[in-house]
Amino acid sequence: VRARVMQVDHSPDVTYEDIGGLDDQLTEVRETVEMPLERPEAFDDVGIQPPSGVLLHGPPGTGKTMLAKAVANQTDASFIKMAGSELVHKFIGEGAKLVRDLFEVARENEPAVIFIDEIDAIASKRTDSKTSGDAEVQRTMMQLLSEMDGFEDRGEVRIIAATNRFDMLDEAILRPGRFDRLIEVPKPDAAGREIIFRIHTRKMNVADDVDFDELAETISDASGADIKAICTEAGMFAIRDDRTEVTMADFEDAHEKLEQTDEADVGDSV
Ligand code: ATP
Asked: Residues enclosing ligand 1, CB less than 6 A?
């Protein structure tokens, strides 16, 4: 079971330089996650326990997973990822057991960063807690909270959770000592978009006419993941055209194409 749902990555390759437009978020993640991992004695000396967990919240594709991976990389910690949806099971006790396994694996791989994506899957406000499926999900969450509360270690295991649906979360997980550091990870503004364009084109053969400032202005509302997709698609246009240089027109065409795909998707789901 472990192997199926838990990914242990001993050296995630994301660095802080790969993340654009999230300077404040990065500082806060470093303070809460990196410091306890690197200097647990600082907390001992002062006599406080570092916050166990950090919750990242914001729209999809904005860099939440990247932030968690980068901090694990920077501190030479293992990165252990699990999606909240994978903790939701039919059988009684299975979710809780997975949570125990998760923390056990983390302790075996210290220092470690546990990343729980889609935490809302097990930590949503319940509208009707009488159904048995809900009770099982509730038990899984209780197990997670008790693992976090019972943390006697000095900081060698840090927990980062992420959600796109902050408004849905049960307040129990936001109590002091749990995920009491909340970090909003929004979509980038124009300056952020420009930086992210530059990051994702670092290895691309970009023509002189490409104006990232202009792209960042016109391609509003894009997430980091959208920008990455536009860069790849722009490269595809160049390849189809048998060129090695990617031009401004390629980026514009890529943007247009991806916007149409998005609209088609929205149309489908209605
Ligand atoms: P989700 O909520 O859907 O899991 P997420 O916020 O965890 O999304 P990531 O998985 O971190 O998003 O981002 C997906 C990809 O988009 C990254 O691998 C990266 O290529 C790109 N990306 C997203 N945000 C940024 C950013 N701020 N800077 C650079 N690249 C980014």
From this structure: 19-22, 60-66, 117, 162, 164, 196, 199, 224-225, 228
Token pair 């932030």: residue: 67
Task: Say how far apart CA 165 and CA 27 lie, in whole Å.
Answer: 23
Atom in ligand 1 nearest the alpha carbon of residue 20:
28
| DSSP tally for the chain: helices H, then strands E | 12, 6
| Ligand 1 pocket mutation pick from 228, 231, 233, 258 by most atoms within 8 angstroms of CB | 228
- The whole-number mean pLDDT for each consecutive block of 10 residues of the chain, a chain of 270 residues, reads 67 91 94 84 85 90 96 93 86 86 91 93 71 76 84 74 92 82 96 98 97 95 96 97 97 94 62
User: Which ipTM value was assigned to this complex?
Assistant: 0.96
| HSE (side-chain half, CA atoms, 13 Å) at 19 | 24
* β-strands 78-83, 53-57 pairing: unpaired
Question: Is residue 58 within 8 Å of residue 1, measured between CB atoms?
Answer: no
Sign of dihedral through CA atoms 219, 257, 233, 66? positive
Peptide bond connecting 111 to the previous residue in cis, omega within 30 degrees of 0: yes
Whole-number Å distance between alpha carbons of 215 and 255: 9
pTM: 0.89
